[in-house]
């Protein structure tokens, strides 16, 4: 029950945040009255979606009410949600899975079977769990991102490394872009597993110790896919550029494999080949 309540609270915050980003002029609504807060009013959004004001107010307050697919589709359209945000809305509003129990089971599942897949890639590849811990990698990824076997477990968590590790800002060429995307991915997972103690402790630590994390977390940005341009400063070969592509693992969709395809910029293929030659020696 507490799990469902916290998920509804996440839904409430998400809806309030996205409503505040819209203006009445976007929908040709009259703006003749002075507004105490930014964005559309609840009654305006309810009118646009085609639902009662009281019903929508209950939804945005996190009350446990039933929401149809049709209403969620209209709501996503009016709120101008992208594909990832729309999927996130459906997860928050309709999921009946015992998420915390599921995550506790998933964290115990072995990743040894996935290692053979990782080792079969010629490009760098890393394996992430639902908490954004890096739980698998191939040798070339180990050479690029650091010596994972020697790292403490906490440093293998992607959000922790980005916001807390002293080398992250020099390693990530576009640190703010990468950090914001990582935070948005973490927020999506927190909304799905709001009762997970490990995630709550991580978020509390980051809010206490990272000014950027503390400032950006309330924005409630959501990212489910990591496909994007990615650029790092390698201490040995210099700048490397990649395109990140995410793949769910066969039979273990809770694990996500990210493949880093080298791009021509910065002579990355040649530099990567040199690193790979060293790995094989």
TrEMBL record:
**Which part of the chain is the HTH cro/C1-type domain?**
14-86
Q: Which SMART domains does this UniProt record tie to the protein?
A: HTH_XRE
Fetch the InterPro entries from UniProt: Cro/C1-type_HTH (IPR001387), Lambda_DNA-bd_dom_sf (IPR010982), MLTR_LBD (IPR041413)
Q: Which GO terms describe its molecular function?
A: DNA binding
Q: Which domain of life is it from?
A: Bacteria
Q: What is the protein name stated in its UniProt record?
A: Transcriptional regulator
Species in which this protein is naturally found: Ktedonospora formicarum
């Amino acid at each position: 029950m507490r799990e469902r309540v916290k998920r509804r609270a996440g839904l409430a915050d998400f809806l309030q945040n996205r409503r505040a980003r819209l203006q009445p002029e976007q929908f040709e609504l009259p703006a003749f009255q002075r507004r105490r807060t930014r964005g559309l009013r609840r009654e305006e959004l309810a009118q646009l979606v085609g639902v009662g004001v009281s019903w929508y107010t209950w939804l945005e307050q996190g009350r446990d009410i039933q929401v149809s697919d049709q209403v969620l589709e209209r709501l996503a359209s009016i709120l101008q949600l992208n594909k990832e945000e729309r999927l996130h809305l459906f997860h928050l509003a309709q999921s009946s899975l015992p998420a915390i129990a599921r995550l506790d089971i998933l964290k115990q599942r072995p990743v040894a079977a996935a290692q053979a897949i990782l080792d079969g890639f010629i490009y760098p590849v890393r394996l992430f769990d639902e908490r954004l811990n890096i739980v698998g990698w191939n040798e070339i990824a180990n050479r690029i991102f650091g010596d994972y076997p020697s790292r403490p477990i906490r440093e293998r968590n992607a959000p922790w490394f980005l916001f807390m590790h002293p080398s992250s800002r020099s390693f990530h060429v576009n640190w703010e872009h990468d950090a914001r995307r990582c935070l948005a991915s973490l927020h999506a997972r927190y909304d799905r597993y709001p009762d997970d103690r490990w995630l709550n402790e991580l978020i509390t630590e980051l809010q206490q110790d990272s000014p950027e994390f503390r400032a950006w977390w309330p924005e409630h940005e959501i990212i489910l896919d990591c496909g994007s341009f990615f650029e790092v400063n390698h201490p040995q070969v210099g700048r490397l550029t990649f395109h990140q592509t995410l793949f769910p693992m066969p039979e273990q969709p809770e694990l996500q494999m990210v493949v880093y395809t080298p791009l021509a910029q910065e002579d990355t293929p040649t530099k990567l080949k040199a690193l790979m030659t060293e790995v094989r020696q």
